[in-house]
Amino acid sequence: MDFVDINGVNLAYRETGSGYPLVFAHEFAGSMENWDQQVNYFARKYRVIVYNARGYTPSDVPENPDVYNHKQQVADLKGLLDHLSIEKAHIGGLSMGAYTTIGFGLTHPEMCSSLIVAGAGSGSDDVEKFHQNSSKYADLMESGGMEAMRAYSTGDTRARFRFKDPLGYALFEELFLSHSAKGSANTFRGFQGTRPSIYTWEDDLKNLRVPMFVINGDEDEPCLEPGLFLKRTVPTAGMAVVPQTGHAVNIEEPMVFNQLVAEFLSLVELGTWLPRDYGSGDAW
After folding, report:
1. pTM of the model
2. Is residue 283 situated within a structural domain?
3. pLDDT of 277
4. What is the pLDDT confidence band of residue 284, given thresholds at 50, 70 and 90?
5. How far from chain centre, in Å, is Cα 199?
6. Which residues span the domain enclosing 261?
7. CB 164 within 8 A of CB 249
8. Residue 220 lies in a domain
């Protein structure tokens, strides 16, 4: 494990393998360890980079929630790639990490060979309620620590995972409950509690030409409509829905996820992942 200083905040990261860079950003309830099954698989061909966002130890935990906002998360990812002298990479993420992936693709499209967007857009359909809930969760963590968030990890979008893979779920929950309560609360206040609905990015997404792969579990209700929105809006987007699967699709169904992503990356690299208007002769 290594560290990079980004404007005075140290972020922990790990790189494995060699080849073309492939970066994964984790969800709120996750950390770099939640990508282990992707690292094990893709590092045979790619230079795989995973990292802990600010607020997730051993990364630093800044005191001010304002420095956790979605634009700062994009800047952190940019700083990590610059530190590693990576000019262009495949960029992917789950949930919070998927939101960062989309933001990075819109802000720095020239640095993206592709975008892997899994479980994105929670809260987009009722952003005011989502922001209110984020504030309540932050209060819970500040008063009761991570143990007060156990119900968060056992909600409807995690139920299938808990049922079909008890050992995998237990590891996920153990890692989640080991997070910094302060860092997680600040993430809820500064990131989830302020981020706009992905629907507000519609005009920019219509002009995005980076190949995008949207992946959702069919039991991840808060992300299904946002996923369809991305598929309908981004000209280069394709979508896969994994049956009887919840939010953390990459650890709930790692074999399916890895196979889907491997095929996507292969098509991108062959130049055969085409936009919807490919028949017009206007290729990207």
Report:
1. 0.95
2. no
3. 76
4. very low
5. 17
6. 2-274
7. no
8. yes
Q: How far is CA 151 from CA 3, 49, 121, in A?
A: 32, 30, 21
Count structural domains, the chain.
1
11 φ, ψ to 5°?
Answer: -110, 135
Handedness of CA 50, 198, 121, 174 (dihedral sign): positive
Question: Is the CB of residue 182 less than 8 Å from the CB of residue 58?
Answer: no
User: What sections of the chain are H helices per DSSP?
Assistant: 36-42, 70-83, 96-107, 127-144, 156-164, 166-177, 181-187, 202-206, 221-233, 249-252, 254-270
Work out the average pLDDT over 209-220: 97
* Residue 279 within a domain: no
| pLDDT (0 to 100) of residue 154 | 82
The single-letter code of the amino acid at 275 is: P
DSSP code, position 238: E
* Token couple for 239: 């979508």
Paired residues of 115 in beta bridges: 91, 212
Q: CA-CA distance, 154 to 103, in Å (whole number)?
A: 28
Task: Give yes or no for a contact between 38 and 26, defined as CB atoms under 8 angstroms apart.
Answer: no
Q: How many CA atoms lie within 13 A of 22 on its CB side?
A: 26
Q: Of 9, 52, 60, whose CA–CA distance to 29 is shortest?
A: 52
Instruction: Give, as one character, the DSSP assignment of residue 180.
Output: -
CATH number for the domain that contains residue 127: 3.40.50.1820
Q: Dihedral through CA 104, CA 105, CA 106, CA 108, nearest 10?
A: 70
Spatial distance between the Cα atoms of 35 and 51, rounded to a whole number of angstroms? 10
Mean pLDDT of 70-89: 97
Distance CA 166, CA 171 (A): 9
In this prediction, residues 177-205 reach a mean pLDDT of 96
For residues 185 and 138, the answer to whether their CB atoms sit within 8 Å is yes
| Domain-located, residue 282 | no
